[in-house]
């Protein structure tokens, strides 16, 4: 695919730089475990400024996604990281939590600020060190983050994400083999992309880690078939007899560490500063969805963002759908693509997804945007669409247009 590049206006929100760290294993043995989250984020902030050549004094805000904002990731990690990166004290920062889509939402907030005329130069970023700050550790013993109103509204009780993934697999009739085949393909794509240097432009090595640590080139359907269900629970089995218990560590995204940063400017600022815009943020949306199934919001989010953009599936050259669990992407493709789901999947996560690369929660939105932008440039496409499911039943969707 190759198309002529689009023009951009002075008030467009344009992406002028995007970078990410390699993703490390979210375990004590992972390569990035000894890097504090603020330092991990500071690395991406420093890199995106260095690669664009922008004077950090011109940055009007740093908006950073972080999900588990406790311990090493508490006390406004965006501000702490930007100061640690050496930015002037005049640069403000704020942390955002929209669960798995936190840094994709940071990108939306940054672009919205540019479009509204509030910013000329802004960085959207994200970080998560799941090895140092375990998922769920912000929920203290005895606390109730949901409240009595939620308990009354959902009297039968909501469920963890793994059970939501099982419910999706059951509702869409997805077999264990289909899930494992999808997952093996993700590893193969990511391994080939790494071998062929397709990630090189987006990576900022740190702590001796030069490539994503979790990708397993040797992954096969046969090896995945030997893994046991990760979320089997007798109580949930009785409540949801339709569940076949097909979700395993092999067809789920792994615990991960990483950060990413995306610099967004107005078109006018890009021209003034002599920057090369890579893409403009074309259209953004966010939706709520059923909190029991929780992970299906990518479907209405995709439909809504396409309608808002005045585009169709056929107009989009590349899709990135976060691989929180394999059934999320397969249910999305089946519903959105219909009879053309196989063709849709051929344009989706072309260099592998979170099952292989990893899913450092607060960083994933910016990580995926960086990877998608890089792939769009390499393939000479025009439009790309990113969408992510989020805890609590939400999803962001963003369309970018290459410039």
Task: Give the arrangement of secondary structure elements.
Blueprint (H helix, E strand, L loop, with lengths): L12 E8 L3 E2 L11 H16 L9 E4 L11 H8 L8 E4 L5 H14 L5 E9 L17 H7 L7 H11 L4 H20 L25 H5 L8 H6 L16 E11 H7 L5 E10 L9 H12 L8 E4 L4 H12 L3 H6 L7 H4 L6 H16 L3 E8 L3 E9 L1
Parallel strand pairs: 3-4, 3-5, 8-9
Antiparallel strand pairs: 1-6, 1-7, 2-6, 5-6, 7-10, 9-10
Helix pairs in contact: 1-2, 3-14, 5-11, 10-11
What does this molecule look like?
By secondary structure, this protein is α/β, with parallel strands linked by helices. It has a domain at 13-132 and 254-402: Peroxisomal Thiolase, Chain A, domain 1, CATH 3.40.47. 36% of the residues lie in helices and 17% in strands. The chain has helices at 37-52, 77-84, 102-115, 147-153, 161-171, 176-195, 221-225, 234-239, 267-273, 298-309, 326-337, 341-346, 354-357, 364-379; strands spanning 13-20, 24-25, 62-65, 93-96, 121-129, 256-266, 279-288, 318-321, 383-390, 394-402. Strands 1, 2, 3, 4, 5, 6, 7, 8, 9 and 10 form a ten-stranded mixed sheet that branches. Helix 3 (102-115) crosses helix 14. The chain is globular. The two termini are 15 Å apart. The model has no long low-confidence stretch (mean pLDDT 97).
